Each structure stands twice: as structure tokens, then as C-alpha cells.
Amino acid sequence: MKRLVLIDGSSYLYRAFHALPPLSNDAGEPTGALFGVVNMLRATLNERPDYVAFVVDAPGKTFRDDLDPNYKANRPPMPDDLRAQVLPMCEIVEALGIPILRIDGVEADDVIGTLARRANAENIDVTISTGDKDFAQLVRAAEPDRAGIVLVNTMSGSRMDSDEAVIAKFGVRADQVIDLLSLMGDSVDNIPGVEKCGPKTAAKWLGEYGTLDGVIEHASAIKGKIGDNLRAALPRLPLNRQLATIKTDVELERGPAELALRERDADALRGLYARYGFKQALRELEGASTANDIASDRAGLRATAAGHARGGGAAEAPAPELAAKGDYEAVTTQPQLDALVASLQAVEEFAFDSETDSLDPMQANLVGLSFASETGRAVYVPLGHDYPGAPAQLDREAVLAALRPVFADPARRKLGQHGKYDLHVLRRCGVEIAGYADDTMLESFVYNATASRHDMDSLAKRYLGYDTIKYSDVAGKGAKQISFSQVAIDDATKYAAEDADVTLRLHRVLGARLAAEPALEKVYREIEMPLVPVLARVEANGVMIDGDELRKQSQELGKRMLDAQLKATELAGRTFNLDSPKQLQALLFDELKLPVLVKTPTGQPSTNEEALEAIADQHELPRVILDYRGLAKLRSTYTDKLPEMVNPHTGRVHTSYHQAGAATGRLASSDPNLQNIPIRTDDGRRIRRAFVAPPGRKLVACDYSQIELRIMAHLSQDEGLVRAFESGADVHRATAAEVFGKKSLDEVSGNERRAAKAINFGLMYGMSAFGLARQLGIGRGEAQDYIALYFSRYPGVRDFMERTRQDARDKGYVETVFGRRLYLDNIKASNQGLRAGAERAAINAPMQGTAADIIKRAMIDIDGWLAGHRERALMILQVHDELVFEVEDSFVEELLAQASRRMAGAATLRVPLVVDSGVGINWDEAH
DNA sequence: TGACCATGCAA
DNA sequence: TATTGCATGGTCA
């Protein structure tokens, strides 16, 4: 299939001018923008397009000026330094043999749009090279035998080649981009949009209503200030749509097929490059024309790229050197690759690391791989560096094919740092890893969960006394951060090879330390390491979400929020931001003079739920705020956000589990957190109905009943508590009967059971009489009596608590049933608050941590069994004491039996482990 | 833009 | 003066 590249010349010239330093040649002529454009053009031509055009704006009015006299009215005149570079640029473009298009009365955008559509219709693949995001409206995914339209921005390295890519960038499909731009407006072109409506808001509205017309139709339903802004902007929006639409039907003299690349004029180019001081381009010209010095040519390109990718670096001056601290080398030739593979096959273990362009392992693209098998030496294999002028790299597929047997060989031990990430990335490239044997993050976590963070930079500092190159050193940070694929290969090599090297060196230290602590070694070897591939699978499986259902709920919640808001405004007598605790505090406590009964940790009057409940009998407003808060929480955190988290490749939501997240050994979940999906209220519960099974499948949820209390019974060996669990009775009711002296469970009142439950839970968190009193809304003395009574009935529990505190003081740590250790740095602190906090943590950690160990063991066991049934059942969620599976209908019974049995058998305690389960077409039903 | 605070969701 | 987490919107430097 033929390919056409359309270059948005004006856009590049402006952007290069502003992105690059004000360089000049020996004669003092400005060259910065020129330099950027020339590099971009060379990179473009290196890809040998069949047709190409360099499109620039012509002077004069266009149809947009007629539509809106203010269009582009506030655009400043072109700076002189930039104007001076326009002519030389055109000369260079001409000399390169690229056709220049400049059509009177037609903007470059419309020329490009027209050519793109025509070429696409003629089944020519189109690449639009521009820095202007508006072109996303033209993107069209290629299909087999069907040309597509791709948008690339070589300055930022971004690429949009499908609706998914457009969604990732803008949150809307390509066909919604015009509507998005219409809502946002464009300050550069002086198009006023909806005030305060940025890309997020616009995308949200379009997600709800589909099109601009849909948004206009529902404008009255949008609440708040932003809704007013929208309504104010309504008359303007149709005009914005016309302005934002790139025309695709302009009359042109030349069609796509008449844009063939001409022979370049080497003599003219040589003169121009020399005049403007483009030494590397000049060298490339000479090198290619004589074709006898490939190596130096490549070196030249690399130096150019380094200067370019860093943006601020002087054009031809080398970038400031990153200090390479070991013998680090880039692998870019076949002989080097052969040597690497041979060396990996010759060793028993090696460290590896992957570099990518995203933190999300379910979306990241592989940019390079690094390896180290002896300390102080490492190599980096760049695979996807695609900045302008990037040197030739080995073919990605060929490299992966060569490495696949090494990764798949379980006898060759692989080491990593947070290897679960790399497992995902490589799996998505078709490389499965067997023999993932050690992970320095987990070694550190098991060795001492609280001594340091477990990222590589912290570990290197702590255990090696070594300062690593930081990611921000090579890629920048904040808004200016570039993708790793844009990092110069020399810099990338130092950074990436160091990662592998440091991983190996850390393992030498941490592996030895763990080996000296057999109990910890066991936790690491038998629980944490085997769990890595299990978690990777759970994450990759993901969960199916009914996005339409959630969007429907969002709309409904929005309506109810609006009602609450109106009522609140009425009650307050003025408008205020219901989301602002500060404004609310001023209103309630200063203006309405309601009493301050609760304060925040910083001493401010609190407006939290407890505080509002306490004053709800004195004024109607607190109740309305509480209602509003409940709705707003559900909408902002769940119903609005979850649909946005659907992975465009898989159509499912993939959380990340942090294995070294919680010091107690629990997992933590993020992006999104699927461990805090509401369940306690009816409105909240509805959200769980949007976690669904596909047709022909069911969700199965299995959860441990009272696991932490059972662990407390086991650890304390308290006869009464053990008996309660052995009898199979409702443990809170049994506790109430004991504490309140009832002869039979039937005599326990609801209130007594509630009190007993509060005591049971409170004890596990190290709660005091004060806390219990507050929880139950009773006097402190009464609470103290309950606790005393409890301890007299369950003396084993009291002894266990005291023993645990003493243990913590003596040893400085507490441990779980399986030997996981938690150090408590503050247990001997002189600060009484810190010490009390450490004591509470000491009491809680063995129970929470043992529960975490148990469910981890169950997950490993169940995953092993599921290996033979991957088509029929998937483990998809873990929520501390619960596992959720997605199961084929015909396999539900089998899975229920196996999962329950394996969970219950994951530990043998003094009391039985009981597993409850449920089945349904959604998570609510299954629970 | 980043950091912090207040708030609230889960086990 | 109740454990462990994560995400939100507001606010401020």
C-alpha cells in the first residue's frame, strides 16, 4: 500500500521556534526553528514515503475569517526571528525534493484535510505530521487492505492511529473531536468556548450525551456554575463547530498521486546546511552519498538526537553527560545481539528490566530491554526509540524472538525489581517468562516492610549507598516530561543498563540478608514470589464493567445532587460550594452559629459526617449536606470514573495490585482501586451491579467469614472465643451473651449484639474505652465497664494483647503466624502519642497480616488449580478477605467447591476457617 | 502544578 | 483517643 505524508509546515515552524533555544549560525542568522524542522524532515524522509507534501498557510482571508471577524484576531504578528527563517526553510524543503503546497484563500489545515480524505479514498495510507491536536478529527484506523489516517507529532513523539488512541488522548472518539473543540474553544485562534470547560469536562459531557447536539439538548440538566456557563455559550456553539471543522472538500489542482517525492538537490542542500551550520545533517548527506561510513553517520545522528530530545540543549553541542557508572553498552547490531543471547544462555541467573512509554503496564509499549549477569556490566537493547534522527535499532520482533527461549527457560533464574510490571509488558509482546525467581522490591519488603520505600532508587541508596540516575534526569518531569521513546539512546543506555545492574547488585545484598533469616526467607520464597505471576494474571484478566449502567447512574445522581444543591442554597440563604469544607465551615459555624462538636486533626471545626450528624437536630442544612455528600462521593469517585478506566484494548478494567503496599502484608489496589467499591448503602450497592459477567458466565464471590477474629482466637487460644467459633454460632451474638450474662443466644438484644460487635472490632484495632464510648454513643465509664467485663470473660484475649505489646517492646517487631515480620520503630518513642500508635499497630498487625498471608496462599493454590481450566474460570479480584471469579455457567459448581475448599484449607488454625460464597450475573448478586 | 487538607469508600 | 489502604475536590504557595 502506498503512503502519503502530509506535513503541517506552519505548525512545525511555530512549535520548533518556541520549543528550541534561539540558535544562530556564525553569521548571526536565527536558525533554531529551522533546525527543528530540518531534523523532523530528515526523520520523515528516512521512512521513505511514496508521496509527501509540505503544506503552509497562504496570506489572505479564508472562509473562517468570514464566519467570525474575531477569528485569530488576537494572534500576535510573527516574530522577526521566526519570519527570517521562513524563506530558508522553503529553500531546504525544495532542495529535499518535497512538494510545497500553499493555496491562496485556503488554510493549510483544510488543504491537509482534503488531501488526507482524498488519499484515503484512493486507499493510500496517510500520515499527518503536525503539532496541532485539532487534526485528531481526521484519524481513522487502518484495517487489513484498507488505508488509514494516522496523526503523528514528532516533537512530542505522540501518535494517534485509531479511535482508541484518540480516546486515550482526548477521552472521545475521532468523530467527537470537533464537538470537543467546539465546547472547549481555542484561545490561540480566539474562539470562545464554554467558560471553564476544558478537555475533561467536554469529554465528560460528550461521553454522556454523545454529540454536541446532545449536549446542547441536555444543557438544562447540567448543574452548577459550569452548567450556567454552558447555557450562556449555547448560541455560540454551532459557529464554533463550523470553525473547528477541518474542510475536506477544497478544490485543489494537485491530487495525492501528484505529490511524489522528487530527487533531492544535493548541491543546494550542501550549501544550505553549511550556511546554517547543520553539521550532522551535512555529515549525513556526505555519508549517504558516499555510502562508506555508516558507523560515523549513525554516531552523528545520535548526537543530533540527544540535543533535540532534550529540547533545551544547544543544537549541535553534546548534551550534558550523564555519568555512566558501570560498563554499559547499547546493543544495536546483530553480532552484539548474538553475543548477548549467548551470554544469557551461559549463565544461571541474570537481572533484566524493560523500558516503556507508560506507567500503565496494560497499555505500555516496549521501548527497550536491559540485562545484567555480572555486577558492574550491563547492556541495553533499544527497540522503540523513535525521535527524529534516532539511530537504527534492531528489529523488535527479531530481538524478542531471539530472547524468547531464554525468558521461557525456567532453569535460568530471572531477577527483577517490581517484575510484575515487566511480566505484563513482555506478555503483551508475546514473551512469556518462566523462572522469575527473585524480585528485589519483594526482598526488601519482606526483609523490612517499613525501613524504606521499596522503589529501586530508595533501595540503591539504602542498601548500596548508591545514587542512581533518576528517571527525571533522562526524561524530565512534570508537563515537560517526554516519553522514554524520545530519550536519546546514549542517555537511555546509561539509565536502563544501570537499572539491570543495580537490580543484580541489590539482589546480592538483600538475598544474603534474607538467607540469614529463615522465617523471612520462607515468607518470601513460599508466599510473595509465587504470588507475582498470580497477581499478574488477575490484573490481566480484569473485570467487565457495564459502562452504560454507570453513566445512567451518574445522570441520576446528578439530578439528585442538583435538588440537594437547590435546597441547600435555599436553607443557607445564599450560594456556596457544597464541595468546599472551608466554605461550609464558615457557613455553619460562623454564620449559623451552630456548635462545634468535632474538630479536624489540625484543629479546624470539622464538617465531616460525625460533626454534621451531631448538629442535624438543630438545623435542616446539615442533613441536606450529608445527602449531597453521599451522592457526590458515589458520582465523582465511582460512576463518573470507572467507565473512563476501561482499557481500550481489552474492554475491561484492570486494577494494579501493590504487593509491597501495606506494611502488614495486605495488598493494595489502585488505578482504579477496586478494593473500596461501595456496599453499605443501597445507592452504593447499585454500583456493584455494574461489575458484570459476560453472557454465559457468572461472577462467583468467596469470602472468609470473620477471618481476623478467628485469627485472634487462634493467637490468643482463649477458650471462650475458640469455643464460640467451634460451635459455629454468630460470634458477635455469642460475645454479647458472654459479656451481658445471657443464658442463651436468643436472649441477646439487637443493641447488645451491636455493642459486642463494636468491642470485637475495636479490640482488633487496639481501641480504648474512649473510642468505644464514642463509637457506641455511650458514656466513657460504661464503655470501660464493657471492656472490663469482656476481658474477664475472655482472659486469654487480654493476655494475648499484653503479650503482643511486650513482644513488640522486647524485640522491636511483631510477626504473623507464617513468620512475616513488622518492625515498629515507634514502640519505644518518648512521644506518648507515637508510642500508643505503635502499640495499636502491634496488636493489629499480626491479625491483619496473618489474614493477608492466608488469602495469598489460597490465591497461589487456586491459581495452580485453575491452570488447567483457564478457558472456564478466571480469578479477577481480591478484596482482602474475598476472591471474585468469572466462571462459565457449566463450571460454577466445580469452582465453588474447589475455591471454597482451598480457601478454607489455606491455613490450619485452632479454629475452623469458614468461607461464604455467592453466585450472580453481577458482583452485587454474587455477594 | 504540586503538595496538603478534609473527606469518605472498602476490609 | 480504632487498623490498613486509595481517590476525590478544594485550597494555597
TrEMBL record:
The lineage of its organism: Bacteria, Pseudomonadati, Pseudomonadota, Gammaproteobacteria, Lysobacterales. One of its GO terms (biological process) is double-strand break repair. Keywords: DNA damage, DNA repair, DNA replication, DNA-binding, DNA-directed DNA polymerase, Exonuclease, Hydrolase, Nuclease, Nucleotidyltransferase, Transferase. This is DNA polymerase I. Single-chain monomer with multiple functions. The keyword Signal does not apply. GO terms for molecular function: 3'-5' exonuclease activity; 5'-3' exonuclease activity; DNA binding; DNA-directed DNA polymerase activity. Residues 684-891 form the DNA-directed DNA polymerase family A palm domain. Residues 2-262 form the 5'-3' exonuclease domain. Residues 328-515 form the 3'-5' exonuclease domain. NCBIfam families: pola (TIGR00593), PRK05755.1 (NF004397). It comes from the Bacteria.
